[in-house]
Amino acid sequence: MKKSLGVLSSFISLVRPKQWLKNALLFFPPFFAVKIGDPAVKSALVPAFFSFALMSSCSYILNDIRDRETDKNHHIKRKRPLASGKVSVLQASFLAGVVYFASILIGSAVSEKFEALLIIYLVISFLYSFFLKQMALIDIFVVSFGFMIRVIAGGVAFHVEVSKWLFLTVFLVSLLLASGKRLGELIDLGEGAATHRKSLVNYSQGFLGGLLWFSAAASLITYALYTLERTTTLFYTVPLVAFGIIRYNYLAMKGTGEPTDVLVRDMPIMVTGLLWVASIGILIY
Questions:
Q1: Of 247, 249, 240, 226, which Cα lies nearest the Cα of 176?
Q2: Pair 157, 195 in one domain
Q3: Which range, of 28-32, 75-79, 130-134, 151-155, averages the lowest pLDDT?
């Protein structure tokens, strides 16, 4: 019984449900378009979210299979099921296949275009895990593309046109999060960074810090322009966004730049995020 529970726990860990929070980006297009309550949107919310969540889980499993040896050199990632030997490559591959087909099956209830975006996301994730993550700069941009595809998929799933300013804002924020994650790894791992990720050899704290603040400033400007394009009342949410971005940069420069961990563990950012969503709901709904 304990062994079965241990295997189940390892499988859940491989799927990384905590990372599903990123898929909330799917809801940005209908939320900002004031269509989140439309019957057609409501009917697609659950299948769209879970199909993308499962496809992202498939990409995480493939990444863990690829990185199982280098993860052993990381003080936290060495506890992952594959790196620790709790799950075999064969078992992980089987699980990846199961969540892939489940994702496609659920995604078929949304639309064919949405399914195509699911596959495109997985292909990009596969290329990232097995080839591109070792290339400095390219790795950061590919991570950013993953966030952008979610927003595009949200527009397709809910039949909402994605604003160009919103798209650009998401791209710059994702660039911010990706550079913050790399900076956090570089600071946290120190001299052992190269043994975990080869691309970190080609980065310096100064460069990543500069990219972090460039992305922060640019994303804040584009968000402000988007609020003015959408409706002037949204402009009053800019200070909340500014605080959230600066808080994230502060944490990233201390070596804690993993986006999901920051979102679910840092109370100031959690509160800021909730206030931001609530403010938008009050101002435009």
A1: 249
A2: no
A3: 75-79
Alpha-carbon distance of 63 to 75, in angstroms, equals 18
Residue 256 lies in a domain: yes
Residues 283 and 171 in one domain: yes
Domain count, the chain: 2
Token duo for residue 162: 């994605």
282 located within any domain: yes
In-domain check, residue 52: yes
Whether the pTM exceeds 0.85: the reply is yes
Identify the pLDDT of residue 195. Answer: 63
Residue 232 to residue 228: CA distance in whole angstroms: 5
Task: Give me the mean pLDDT over the 30-49 stretch.
Answer: 92
Q: How many angstroms separate the Cα of 139 from the Cα of each of 130, 201, 202, 205, 218? A: 11, 13, 12, 16, 20
How many Å apart are CA 258 and CA 284, to the nearest integer? Answer: 31
Expressed as residue numbers, the domain containing 158 is 10-162
Which of 162, 177, 203 lies at the terminal end of a domain, its last residue? 162
Could you tell me what percentage of the chain is helix, strand and coil, using 3-state DSSP and rounding each to the nearest 5?
85, 0, 15
**Closest CA relative to residue 175, chosen from 129, 227, 222:** 222
> Is 185 within a domain?
yes
- Tell me which H or E stretch contains 177: helix 164-189
